[in-house]
Fold this sequence. Notes:
Blueprint: H1 35-48, H2 50-54, E1 58-62, E2 81-85, E3 99-103, E4 108-111, H3 116-127, H4 135-146, H5 166-169, H6 178-191, E5 202-203, H7 218-228, H8 240-251, H9 268-282, E6 291-295, H10 296-308, E7 317-323, H11 328-335, E8 339-344, H12 355-365, E9 370-377, H13 389-402, E10 405-409, H14 426-432, H15 435-438, E11 443-448, E12 461-467, H16 471-483, H17 489-499, H18 509-534, E13 540-541, E14 550-551, E15 554-555, H19 559-567, H20 572-584, E16 586-587, E17 589-590, E18 603-606, H21 611-631
Parallel strand pairs: 5-16, 7-8, 7-9, 9-10, 10-11
Antiparallel strand pairs: 1-4, 2-3, 6-12, 11-12, 13-15, 14-18, 17-18
Amino acid sequence: xxxxRRCGCQAPGCGGWPPGLGAAGAHLNPGGAGGLAAxxxxxxxxxxxxxxxxxSVSVLQRRGAGSREPGGxxxxxxxxxxxxxxxxxxxxxxxxxxxxxxSCSRSFWARVSLGRFAMQRAAVLVRRGPWGRSHSSAAxxxxxxxxxxxxxxxxxxxxxxxxxxxxxxxVEYAVRGPIVLKAGEIEMELQRGIKKPFTEVIRANIGxxxxxxxxxxxxxxxxxxxxxYPNLLNSPSFPEDAKKRARRILQACGxxxxxxxxxxxxxxxxxxxxxxxxxxxxxxxxxxxxxxLTTGASDGISTILKLLxxxxxxxxxxxMIPIPQYPLYSAVISELDAVQVNYYLDEENCWALNVDELxxxxxxxxxxxxxKVLCIINPGNPTGxxxxxxxxxxVIHFAWEEKLFLLADEVYQDNVYSPDCRFHSFKKxxxxxxxxxxxxxxxxxxxxxxxxxxxxxxxxxGYMEVINLHPEIKGQLVKLLSxxxxxxxxxxxxxxxxxxxxVPGEESFEQFSREKEFVLGNLAKKAKLTEDLFxxxxxxxxxxxxxxxxxxxxxxxxxxxxxxxQSHKMxxxxxxxxxxxxxxxxxxVPGSGFGQREGTYHFRMTILPPVEKLxxxxxxxxDFHLKFLEKYA
Length: 633
């Protein structure tokens, strides 16, 4: 082979020819004969180049000095370097050759990939070496020309389960927990044609009215459409009372647009409408300056708790919550590293709130924390009870006695179905108890667009009224709210329509009233249907659904099923609900996600599906439960 010669480096362990070369060496010459000589010399000086020896390269696999790589060729035991083109014989055909420089420094093989043109330039520089320059200087320049860019091993992640905020890791939210993730997986399997004993997943785990088929209230959507696209204000298709409200909202927005920011506390005219609504509802005055518009009620609850939680050790803030509870509360308490103080609702007495139980809970809590907050959910979620006026009076007196800040979650205030029950707001009862209470008990009340007859969950509209707040704390609250700039202005507008609906004499009043009564009447029928059907099933006991949107039946789980659940490292009611999902496609939430007395088991199921579908759900639950009892008897 003309113009080709062995490598002349004479380094110990050098095999002379680059491995696998054979007669293909002539193809390595990009410019004619002598290419192999250049490559051989390049081999020598790549091995001897301090620049390459200093470069940090990524590990391929461990090899000892003097060993052979699987591809052939000897490793230089002294310098630990060897190199050759990636694909011998391909350079002449125009393919990208690259170059692998191999190192066993510290007994590791490593690799650097070099480009074609860098290779050509390096070869030329090394070929010139013997004429007027030392090999070392030529090699140094060749190394620079190669511009070796070593492959690096992936950097360790900064954020890991070990390094993340432990309070966030402690947060659990059962309503969208493992059971719901499993439901999503099953839905995907059904879409791929995988056969199941059912054709659809029925998500009865969450109070999402529109997702369950409830139709929007026409008037609310008309005003929202006008606010979103003001050109419709000239359309004869919209009633004048809807246009009137839309114009008022838009005039209070920057640039007459819902797309502008509002004040952090909310759009002024909407806060005024909320205050007027509370005044009409309770018969006691409400101050717009005490109204804060929020991103749903959840945003308001977490914001107030942020202000309240402080201290450490035995002085850490304790937050009293009902058990069963809505998991938002336990989640926020975990996130803020506060102390959860449980008080149990009386299941045997229709989930009533007993003040003696409050006293027990607060006295026990004082041993390890500073109880400062008492949360009430009325009507109850997930339990559906409606507190009596006498009960509310007792709770307010207890809060006054124990110097507790009251949080009244009243988002289901429109959802009262039992003819023997009536919603009483904590604000109204507080004022009716006299000035000693109304001037001293600190109270935050919450409402939302998501529940009631509206069911507008996606708008994320809500408000809180906070009374008897210290003036300096009021400034701190506004500061905290300003960090998130403002709640969605579209949600604020939706909240305005809830608190400022059509009134008698207006064009839309009759249709609005008819739609509202239909939704609430239908929910009342479904509440009674659910209670009756569950109570016909052996091993299921359901208290009357006085209000809200859920049933929370108690279920019998046999000992063998408890043992099976333990073998799967699941809570027994989670095991039950997972089996129910897998066998029927019905997604409900285990009671353990809400809290329950030890040794009792429940699940929460919404009553929102249309009547016929709800009947189907209830019958499927009945059939499943009977088979479950038989299997694990």
